[in-house]
Write a structure and sequence with these properties.
The protein is mostly helical. It contains nine helices and no strands. It has helices at 5-31, 38-50, 60-74, 78-96, 106-121, 130-144, 148-162, 176-179, 185-195.
Length: 203
């Protein structure tokens, strides 16, 4: 089944709920290595995307473009730029495939987004960034098929793998001793967002 704009919008809505829930935990993780605002920035970006109306777009490419524009407008931070870059990559893939992106295509889609974000952020796999989370997720989706469970496990395993390594890019690279043994805030964000479970709806 092809991914529709409404499906993408529903995913963003779940991510917004997760971002609200983990804001302070991400801020605390970022305070060890940066400005301490990763959680707050992520919450703002998720809110802007959720309220963008992307679910009403004519096709998936248009929906991804709307989300990218919302992320970029909300904050000029590096986080907002990377989120927008990943969504622009999705929009390009959707247009190239006439909007026919199936859930089984997600491994390739994540890989392309990873590469676009690497080029934009001038980082590489192995630098202890969100790229390493996306790389692990792409491999898991390729091996196990689509599913949030596989993606969440991969993100958590990447977090554990890189925890005792120093960050090699960004502000955190200036504090190798402090970053060793600490979670990269971006990698932690990916893991927490994918693991978050919304409370059951009560009528």
């Amino acid at each position: 089944m092809n991914i529709a704009p409404a499906t993408l919008a529903a995913f963003v809505r779940r991510m917004r709920a997760a971002a609200d829930a983990v804001e302070q935990r991400l801020n605390a993780a970022d305070a060890r290595l940066g400005d301490g605002d990763t959680g707050s920035m992520l919450r703002r970006i998720a809110r802007a995307m959720d309220e963008s109306g992307a679910g009403e777009a004519a096709d998936l490419g248009a929906a991804a473009t709307i989300l990218a524009q919302a992320a970029a407008r909300e904050t000029g931070s590096s986080l907002g730029t990377l989120v927008a870059t990943g969504l622009i990559s999705l929009a390009k893939e959707a247009r190239a495939r006439d909007g026919a992106i199936d859930a089984r295509d997600l491994a390739v889609i994540v890989s392309r987004a990873r590469d676009a974000m690497a080029a934009r952020g001038r980082a590489e796999r192995g630098d202890k960034t969100v790229l390493d989370s996306l790389d692990a997720i792409a491999r898991a989706l390729d091996e196990e098929g689509p599913g949030r469970g596989a993606a969440a496990r991969a993100a958590r395993e990447a977090l554990a793998t890189f925890r005792d390594r120093p960050c090699r890019v960004g502000r955190a690279r200036m504090f190798p001793d402090r970053s060793t043994g600490s979670d990269d805030p971006g990698m932690l964000a990916v893991a927490l967002l994918l693991e978050h479970e919304e409370p059951p709806h009560v009528a």
